[in-house]
Amino acid sequence: MASHAARPPGSRRLRRARARRPRRLAGPVLATLIAVLIAVAFWVGTDLRDAQAAADDRQAAMRAAGTHAVHLLSVGHRAVDADIGRVLATSTGTARAEYAESAAELKRTTAAGRLLRTGALRATGLVSLRDGTARVMVVGDELTRRDGGKDAPQERFHRWNMEVTKVGTAWLVSKVEPVP
User: pLDDT at residue 13 above 90?
Assistant: First the structure.
């Protein structure tokens, strides 16, 4: 019993209070840590979504320019109206207006010459992308022959700078400039 007398009064309570203090702090510290982790995960997730959306836009703009180029190069007398329709469907603005203006002459010469043009896409490259407008370099080949003709097909090579604009959710070619 003498050993109890040597301890100061209340020391047992003091030890218990000290032992409980870390437990009392653990809850708020853990809650704060979880909140910080959730905020960081949200921030990183937002950045990843933005980066993926930008990558998707780059790919979609290049794909739209390439598709338009193949449509431009692939016009035949057998389905000239459908071929012209595909070009018009993948264009907007100045590109659409210019093509629509020349479509009647293209239809006439294609039908009169019984021409079959087949296009092949060789390459696309993104030059710039900003605010829903992209500039894309496009390289394609065209093989032209007369249906039933014995002459060798003619091969032509094309290079364009195309401006592609996001219209709603679709990317459409709005300007086509040949590159000499």
Answer: no
Task: Give the Cα separation of 50 and 36 in Å (integer).
Answer: 21
Sheet holding 115-130, edge to edge: 115-130, 133-146, 154-167, 170-178
For the stretch 113-154, pLDDT in tens is 999 999 999 999 999 999 999 999 999 999 999 998 888 999
- Give the Cα separation of 56 and 72 in Å (integer): 24
Set out the domains of the chain in order of their start, with CATH numbers: 37-178 (3.10.450.50)
Whole-Å CA distances, 178 to 140, 152, 159: 11, 26, 6
Nearest in space to 159 (alpha carbons), one of 121, 129, 131? 121
Instruction: Give the per-residue pLDDT at 27.
Output: 76
DSSP string, 131-164: TTEEEEEEEEEEEEEETT--SPPEEEEEEEEEEE
Which amino acid is residue 31, in one-letter code?
Answer: A
Instruction: Give the torsion sign (CA, 158, 100, 59, 133).
Output: positive
Whether 9 has a pLDDT exceeding 80, the answer reads no
